[in-house]
Amino acid sequence: MTDNAVLRLRAERLARATRPFLARGNRTVRCQRCLLPQRNCLCATLQPQQARSRFCLVMFDTEPMKPSNTGRLIADILPDTQAFGWSRTEPDPALLAAVENPDVQPLVVFPESYADAGRPVINHPPMSGKPPLFIMLDGTWTEARKMFRKSPWLDRLPVMSLTLHRPSNYQLREVHAEGQHCTAEVAAELLLQAGDTAAGEALFSHFDLFRQRYLAGKPHHPLHQNAAQHPESCP
């Protein structure tokens, strides 16, 4: 099994759990790496890439365990991606060290409308200087806002507020508002705008395949019904 930081975080979170984590569709037999139904596993299609850009995922509580999580896809394509669980009062010392790394430019990826007055905001990834470290707050929209508001160790860092050029194609969970994008879509667009074109396109392709196979595993979705009627076309 290919390892990455999100899978390690998932294993740690499961080990701490006092009762089984039951996601939607928990009776489905899943691949324990990509968390898709075994018949739809996409692990054999993974094609990691190199990029100047770096990513640090700060994940809300059970997010690493959810089959619908797309932060994991970033780590699939960029194996150096870091991932940490979020704590309001006791942030992981390794997380604090990651954002203090003098070899990178740490940027908190979030809409500028939520930044306090006077906080530095940039609207395009830096193309020169130290590699950017994009800090992604990974959870539901409500959870992401909570992490943004209640992480004082992030307050001194500039906000990376991105304009996305592609409409969202998520469809795996209900979105908070029209125009919102999932974590993997935002990361892929960041890569493209930062000049990491091959990695950005690879992440978009990986996300599209993940989305298709995830939906194909939902019994009432047309993709699942089509696969049942035409098993020879199954992935």
Describe the structure.
With 235 residues, the chain is of the alpha/beta class. Helix content is 31%, strand content 11%. It has seven helices and six strands. It has helices spanning 5-16, 71-77, 93-99, 141-149, 183-193, 197-216, 222-229, and strands at residues 54-59, 82-85, 105-109, 121-122, 132-138, 159-160. A six-stranded parallel sheet has the order 2-1-5-3-6-4, with helices on both faces. Helix 5 (183-193) runs antiparallel to helix 6 (197-216) and helix 6 (197-216) crosses helix 7. The longest helix is centred in the C-terminal third of the chain and has 20 residues, at 197-216. The radius of gyration is 18 Å and the shape is globular. Mean pLDDT is 86; it is low at 173-179 and 227-235.
